[in-house]
Amino acid sequence: IDLVTRRSEALTHLAQWDLAANDYGTLIDQFPAGRRWNSERNNYMLELAQQEELFAALLESRPEDGHLRLVLCRHLALCSRWTEAAEAIDWAASPSEHDTEEWFEIGGLLLINDDTAEYQELLSAAAREVDATVPLAAFTLARVYGLADQPLETAEQAVRWAESAVDAGSTAWYQHALGLALYRAGSFEEAIAPLEESNASDWADAGKAQNWLVLAMIHHELGDDAAAENWLTRFDEWFADIIEGANGGRINMPTTDWFGIHALHREADALIRPDGIPPGPEDGTQ
Question: What value, to the nearest 5°, has the Cα angle with vertex 230 and ends 186 and 200?
Answer without folding.
Answer: 75
